[in-house]
Amino acid sequence: MSKQKKRVTFYYHDDLETYIYYHDHPMKPFRIPMTNELIKGYNLTKKMKILRPSRSSVEQITRFHTDEYINFLSKATPNNIEDFHTQRLRFNVGEDTPIFEGVFDFCQISAGGSIGGAVLLNHNKTDIAINWAGGLHHAKRGECSGFCYVNDIVLGILELLKYHQRVLYIDIDIHHGDGVEEAFYTTDRVMTCSFHKYGNGFFPGTGQIDDLGHGKGKSYSVNFPMDEGMDDKSYVEYFKKTIDAIMAFFQPNAVVIQCGADSLTGDRLGCFNLTLKGHGECVSHVRSFNTPLLVLGGGGYTIRNVSRCWAYETSLLIDGYKLPNELPTNKYQYYYSPDYQLNIQSSYMKNLNSKKSLHDKYIEIYENLRNLTLVPSVGERTRPIDFNFEKQDFDENYQKESDLRFTEKDLDQNVEKINEFYELDQYFNNKQFVNHTKIQDFNSLFNPNTDQFFFNNDNLNLSDEINQIQKKKRKNDK
Ligand code: V1D
Ligand code: CA
Q1: Is the predicted pLDDT of residue 464 greater than 80, yes or no?
Q2: Residue 69 C-alpha to ligand 2 middle, in angstroms?
Q3: Which of 203, 271, 301 to mutate to test the pocket of ligand 1 (most atoms within 8 A of CB)?
Q4: What is the pLDDT of residue 282?
Q5: Is the pLDDT at 411 greater than 50, yes or no?
Q6: Integer Cα distance of 411 and 92 in angstroms
Q7: CA 43, 131, 191, 250 torsion: positive or negative?
Q8: What residue owns the CA closest to ligand 1's atom 8?
């Protein structure tokens, strides 16, 4: 089942070659064109649909972000930033998140791919959508943070929620996926699961194992904090165990994975010891559940390894096609000197995570998952309007995909519900997260009468207890 052929859609925009935070900033958007060149060189573009993302609109972006913040972000430039004294502080502009030339344009492209991918998944026009320019998991509702300005992941998940009752978010970036966790902290319709380095002041300093969610969202935030030196064997083992338990207990209808490549060995900011094999095995494992899948980028600061990793993972997502280790001739060849190989070697660093500590954390996570209340029940079906589906941009250089467009009739079926989201400020007000997420409680939203149930337990070796829960939930879903 896991090697089943799938329809893969790949988002790429040429303009990504043009953005630069500043000369010495670790985040280099250029790693995306580098990835694309490897993908082209390996002929992977022939095996998937290639789309240029539409730039997401202010209206789309402010489904999550505040009007004030986005108004600022869309107007600020390196030339006028000095005029925005108070806003600079308020919206957290600084060394990590500078205002660079075209910053808002960059965000619109990044979010455009994630929202566009979610729309295609919603309409069963693809099985997997890939947007390596997305995955910017630290952006908050009213401020930028950790190299991230617009949270394309939250926007993509909001889009998926129009058609999918439960969405799972998985984050293998070495940093905690705080922006996404915070956005969905009080809902039981989105489970967030982040694996990350935690401790000794490592950014962003959140994501302890007992940060579980709040209110209806209690137990729907999963955090697996780790120490330096995680290697392929221990990471993959605990990734699989944790994800298997989540798939069994939560049974998502769609999955979003953030594939931050800063968890690789030798990353300029990271301190794990993963190779492409371990990182990729996590992505393959998620693919094997045959659930609609949105695959996103994220961090990654040794850019020659980021492009290697994401090109390799693109191949795993297509059909497990094995790439030759010899890198193809490509425009940015000199970055891969001296070996010009795809694979990277782990280093001799010590893995500071003992077997016992990882096992204990897994047990704690598993016990919390066991306490999940049953998934929300099904009611009347109304759906909000899709953003821009009819306006997906196509270009002569890109594959023309007229069959991916929707008819008026498809769009007419989507009815925006009044009071679609309402706010539960109390929790965050208490915590004084002034600029941060207004909590959305999604439980009273539309219902997915027609949601297909993609869960497949062929790959799982689970206890009877889990199987019984699965059965009960399936019954509930019907
Ligand atoms: F090293 C640097 C040089 C220049 C500018 C910034 C940095 C840098 C390194 N690490 N900044 C960081 C992190 N910030 C801090 C704060 C500065 N304060 C005083 C604390 O430690 C931010 C790390 C961001 C990681 C982003 C990410 O990899 O998770 C990501 N994922 O998707 C997109 C980005
Ligand atoms: Ca993470």
Answers
A1: no
A2: 25
A3: 203
A4: 98
A5: no
A6: 38
A7: negative
A8: 96
pLDDT value at residue 422: 22
Quote the pTM value. 0.84
How far is it, in rounded angstroms, from Cα 133 to Cα 57?
A: 17
Q: How many angstroms is it from 417 CA to the middle of ligand 1?
A: 39
Q: How far is the CA of 203 from the centre of ligand 1 (A)?
A: 7
Contacts of residues 390-399 at CB distance under 8 Å and 24 or more positions apart, as own/partner, are 391/54, 392/51, 392/54, 392/116, 392/119, 393/51, 393/52, 393/53, 393/54, 394/51, 394/52, 395/52, 397/14, 398/50, 398/51, 398/52, 399/49, 399/50, 399/51
- Contact call for residues 470 and 455 (beta carbons, < 8 A): yes
Q: Is 262 in the pocket of ligand 1 (CB under 6 A)?
A: yes
| CATH 3.40.50.1820 assigned to 8-377 | no
**C-alpha–C-alpha distance, residues 295 and 128, integer Å:** 7
Shortest-distance ligand to the CA of residue 194: 2
Task: Say which amino acid occupies 176.
Answer: H
The answer, yes or no, to whether residue 373 has pLDDT greater than 80, is no
Catalytic-residue membership of 23: no
Pocket lining: 448 vs ligand 1, CB cutoff 6 Å: no
Catalytic residue among 13, 65, 137, 138: 138
> Residue 295 carries which side chain, given as an amino acid letter?
V
What length does the chain have? 478
Residue 284 to residue 290: CA distance in whole angstroms: 10
Residues facing residue 140 across a β-bridge: 143
Q: Whose CA is nearest to atom 1 of ligand 1?
A: 26
Please report, for the chain, the start and end positions of each structural domain, with discontinuous segments joined by +: 8-377
Q: Which of 233, 113, 223 is nearest to 175 (CA)?
A: 223
The pLDDT > 90 percentage for the chain reads 76
Q: What's the gap in Å between 331 CA and the centre of ligand 2?
A: 31
Most ligand 1 atoms within 8 A of CB, residue of 147, 154, 263, 264 to mutate: 147
